[in-house]
Write a structure and sequence with these properties.
Shape: globular
Strand content: 5-15%
Radius of gyration: 25 Å
Number of strands: 15
Number of helices: 24
């Protein structure tokens, strides 16, 4: 007799989540080719990665954009780029996620303007803009404007969307990058929910949404989360998210429609935990992390995008992305996962852990509320993230947290997957020059009077407090560029520098592991006649500051005097600081892939200033072939993710400075 349910009892399987890969690079044309290829392989939604100039409101020919064009995503400088990017993709049939925050209103304007050109009805557009600026201040660094105008722009996109593109998610509260910055599950829950409250309270206070329609706004708030290796904890975290959101939307905002109270989220699993040593092990990590957000039906993601196994090495190839897509398809279509209800209902262990997470998250959330909410608590949350990340890295250094292939079982056979030319994708350096030429041609071909009129209207709307969206859509049609839109709003709103969290982070005092390095620093400082001074710099637009922060904190804890001014500095500013502060060593942190041109410029400027004897060390995701180039520029040492022992790095720096300074 065959096993299983009878035909009468068998339930239809659930529909799978949206299957995505996070993609975009080089140019709009190359990215469009990649999107079409991925969709033909069974991908069911788009997830667009934009390059750093686009994310921070600069055109490709801006000084700060040098070396960053097309590196971590696709450059979109104007409506023509958006047309090319989405050519042949019917927007009224596509669910599109755009990872964009400070310039979210602008990219949504370009998207809507192109949809209008296609003849796609606005009420059929489905997708998401991330549009979470608070986590940018805390973790990812692609912010532009201060908190108040940033929340106003988010409010504008929400009000516009619920009226004009009702199936669109106009804000996507993103705890993903909080975990990347070291957040514990409790911090991820509390900080993300605090951000959601700040956004919804801003919309409510504006009076622009009638009370009877506020549930529609709440129902379009979505979340983007991270799932790490402790997948039982991750399952419990997601169930806690669901239950906490249900309670908040019902009791704080009075939303009575259960559908509008649903916790709707997409996920990319943890890229932070992907390792450079033995990168083939990352395949198993990605699969286990995906299970944390798919196994529990009540807490299952609405959309899943997976990193590629080799993202710790560089830009994935199309084949690498295909491998991640196939992983999703195998789980969704070959297993019986979607044929059952929630397999964790009734579990005492799961219930206990969920309640524990909820209790701790509510306590943290209450503390943030007591400070005045998420905006008022930015300094506090940033400090807590830096401290949590410090603890995480310390556990890896000591071996208390095992990472296979990194701090245990490090012996390995050579991997055929990473051997040979073309093992990772490299963006052609010519891409930047070509993009700049296209941008110049775009500017030359447009009606400048129409552009000036459109920009003036955007500025008036910003100054007068009117919704920015319609004037931005009109500006997109007129040919206004991303940089022009960004410059206009910078004039009105000003710019912002987020706290680094380094100075406020608790100092590690009682640690035997640090004593030997402290003694080395003290000894060299005595010989130098003053305290060893270390400048940590982040050139370019890369806002992923976690590594730089941890280096700065450890350098401080071992007794160095640290100069760290945060992200988004030009090579000129870094060299000027090195001169003004009379530093003994410079450390550059670059994770965007733009290390070659930016480091080269720093080294050239140091030479012009006559301080080329100051040793420079560089950290980031740097392929071996680029290490040789950096060394040829005069870089003294290079550190990649495999160099996880921070004390060893500190000792190296002491040795380098001692050799250089005492020999001079």
């Amino acid at each position: 007799m065959s096993e299983g349910k009878s035909g009468a009892e068998k339930r239809a399987p659930d529909r799978p989540w949206l299957l995505r890969t996070y993609a975009g690079h080089s140019t709009a044309a190359k990215s469009n080719e990649l999107y079409r290829r991925n969709l033909s392989k069974g991908q069911t939604g788009l997830s667009i990665a934009f390059d750093l100039p686009t994310q921070t409101g600069y055109d490709s020919d801006n000084e700060l954009a040098r070396g960053e064009v097309g590196k971590v995503g696709v450059p979109v400088s104007h409506l023509g780029d958006m047309r090319t990017l989405l050519d042949g993709i019917p927007l009224d049939q596509m669910n599109t996620s755009m990872t964009i925050n400070a310039t979210a209103a602008w990219l949504l304007s370009l998207y809507v303007a192109f949809a209008d050109e296609q003849g796609a009805s606005r009420d059929k557009l489905t997708g998401t803009i991330q549009n979470d600026i608070i986590k940018e201040y805390l973790s990812r660094g692609t912010y532009v404007f201060p908190p108040e105008p940033s929340l106003r722009l988010i409010k504008d996109t929400i009000v516009f969307s619920y009226q004009n593109v009702p199936k669109w998610n106009p804000t996507n509260v993103c705890s993903y990058h909080l975990q990347e910055a070291g957040a514990t599950p409790v911090q991820e829950l509390a900080f993300a929910l605090a951000t959601a409250l700040a956004v919804l309270d801003t919309v409510k206070a504006s009076g622009e949404v009638p009370e009877e329609n506020f549930g529609l706004v709440v129902g379009r708030v979505s979340f983007f989360v991270n799932a790490g290796m402790r997948f039982v904890t991750e399952i419990c975290k997601m169930r806690a998210f669901n239950e906490l959101w249900e309670d908040i939307t019902l009791n704080r905002y009075g939303v009575t429609n259960p559908k509008e109270r649903m916790f709707r989220y997409g996920v990319q699993v943890n890229s932070l935990g992907l390792t450079e040593p033995q990168p083939e092990n990352n395949v198993y990590r990605i699969l286990l992390e995906m299970l944390g957000v798919t196994l529990s039906k009540r807490a299952r993601a609405r959309a899943v995008q997976l990193p590629a196994w080799n993202e710790a090495l560089g830009l994935p190839r199309p084949w690498d992305q295909q491998w991640s897509l196939r992983m999703q398809q195998i789980v969704a279509y070959e297993t019986d996962l979607l044929e059952y209800g929630d397999i964790f209902d009734g579990s005492k262990e799961i219930t206990r852990k969920v309640e524990e997470l909820k209790e701790q998250a509510l306590s943290e959330l209450a503390a943030i509320e007591a400070m005045g909410g998420a905006v008022a608590a930015i300094d506090y949350m940033k400090r807590r993230l830096v401290e949590s990340n410090t603890a995480r890295l310390s556990n890896i250094e000591s071996g208390a947290q095992i990472v296979v292939g990194v701090n245990k079982w490090t012996e390995t056979e050579p991997s055929p997957l990473t051997a040979g030319e073309g093992a990772i994708m490299v963006v052609d350096p010519a891409v930047e020059a070509e993009q700049i030429e296209r941008l110049k041609a775009w500017r030359a071909s447009r009606d400048n009077k129409a552009v000036e009129k459109a920009i003036a209207e955007v500025e008036r709307a910003a100054k007068e407090g009117r919704n920015i969206m319609e004037s931005s859509i009109a500006a997109a049609r007129a040919g206004v560029t991303t940089g022009e839109w960004g410059t206009t709003l910078r004039r009105v709103f000003g710019e912002y520098r987020a706290p680094t969290g380094v100075a406020q982070a608790a100092v590690v005092r009682d640690s035997g592991a640090l004593d030997a390095v402290r003694a080395e620093v003290d000894d060299l400082s005595d010989k130098l006649g003053r305290r060893l001074k270390f400048l940590v710099g982040k050139p370019g637009l890369d806002g992923h500051s976690n590594g730089a922060e941890q280096i700065a904190v450890r350098a401080r804890d071992v007794g160095m005097e640290v100069v760290y001014e945060g992200i988004r500095l030009t090579p000129t500013q870094i060299v000027r600081a090195a001169v003004d502060e009379s530093v003994h060593v410079i450390g550059l942190s670059i994770l965007s892939g733009s290390h070659v041109p930016l480091v080269q410029e720093v080294m050239e400027r140091l030479h012009k200033e006559g301080i080329s004897d100051v040793p420079v060390v560089v950290g980031g995701i740097i392929p071996p072939e680029d290490e040789a180039k950096l060394k040829a520029f005069g870089v003294a040492a290079i550190y990649t993710p495999k160099n996880f022992q921070l004390n060893d790095i500190m000792s190296d720096i002491v040795r380098l400075v001692g050799t250089q300074s005492l020999a001079a």
